Amino acid sequence: MIFSCTKDNLYKGLSVVSHISNKQVNLPVLQNVHIKADGGTIVLSTTNLEIAIRINLRGKIDRTGEYTVPAKLFSDFVNLLPNERVDIEMVDTSLDVSCGDTSTSINGIDAAEFPLIPAVETSSSYTVPASEFKDALSQVLFSVSNNEARPQLSGVLLKLKDETLTLAATDSYRLSERVVKLDESVAEREVIVPSQTLQEVARMIQVLKDDPEIEDKLEIKFSDNQVVFEFGPVNLTSRTIDGSYPDYTQIIPDVFATELVVGRDELTKAIKTASLFSRTGIFDVMLKVDPDTKKISVTANEATRGKNTASCDADVKGGSNEVTVNFRYLIDGLNAMSSEGVTIKMIDGVNPCVVVPNGSLNKGSYQYIVMPIRQ
């Protein structure tokens, strides 16, 4: 195998595929990236047996062939090369890499030991704007549960209906939901996708988003128990999670006693200030709304450290109210929004409160629900 390509293309490809390679004592080839030069295309592939990622690179191929080398080592090395042409040749049981005045030899494993990545026969296909899908992932992934006892909650629900794709995630303490508009009406379908899979989808979009030759379109394809994401030259295949996602819509209130509009940055600062005095392990802060003074105050009280109350101006509708929440959950939701102001909707201290971004940045497409800490 002999081929050459630009350092930039090679490093981008390795950045996309190398992250899922893992340390497997029983199957060390899973730490490697499979490199195949054939038919005028250089293909880089990795798999952890749950997810497989493949990217096609352009380059000049002088001799076809295939081999595997440690993914992280190869990626780290290529990153340090000068921005010139990279020449690669397979010699015996190693890969000789040269670029400018730099050259090295990387030992690897025969390509025959790399797991076969079969093609997936998909039954349906949908197209969404890649940049918008990546933004949606940033607003829901942090709400995924780490509890292995409920595997359905360890993924994100993708719900297709009419002209919308809804992404939802919850760990039972908070819930994120984002709606993405589609260009056409689609058949109704629900699929649970592992959070690691979607983290890799976000990564591949981030790495390649500025490539002028790649259209801002992400194609999502489904089979019975697998999902395929295609973006430009990248193909990512993953298993889906069996089972039904809980009907989270039942916990979202639609009638509220108090609604207020407050500056997102001001509220975040107030929460962070008060949180210095929250109880360790509980992370509690109390939100108290006063319609007379038109303020929302954030209070935390810890016996050994003391007490703090920080206040913000707010446009309040409805009566006075207070609710105690986990400040880390609330800040996660606020950080996922980019609007200057947010609307907070409350019922009382035992029911969920809803936070949505204001203005044209939302239009009903994102909502974040936090369960209260019952005193």
Mean pLDDT value:
94
Instruction: Please summarize the sheet with the most strands.
Output: 10 strands, antiparallel
CATH fold-level topology of the largest domain: DNA Polymerase III, Chain A, domain 2
Number of helices: 6
Q: Output the strand order for the largest sheet.
A: 11-12-23-22-21-16-19-18-17-20
Give the termini distance in whole angstroms: 67 Å
Q: Based on Cα principal axes, name the global outline.
A: elongated
Following the backbone from N to C, one meets helices and strands in this order, namely EHEEEEEHEEEEHEEHEEEEHEEEEHEEE
Total DSSP E strands: 23
Range of strand content? over 45%
Oligomer: single chain
Instruction: Enumerate the spans where pLDDT stays under 50 for 5 or more consecutive residues.
Output: none
Helix percentage: 10-25%
Q: Could you say what the CATH architecture of the largest domain is?
A: Roll
| Full CATH superfamily name of the largest domain | DNA Polymerase III, subunit A, domain 2
- Provide the structure class: alpha+beta
Radius of gyration using CA atoms only: 25 Å
Q: What count of domains describes the coordinates?
A: 3
Q: Would you state the CATH class of the largest domain? A: Alpha Beta
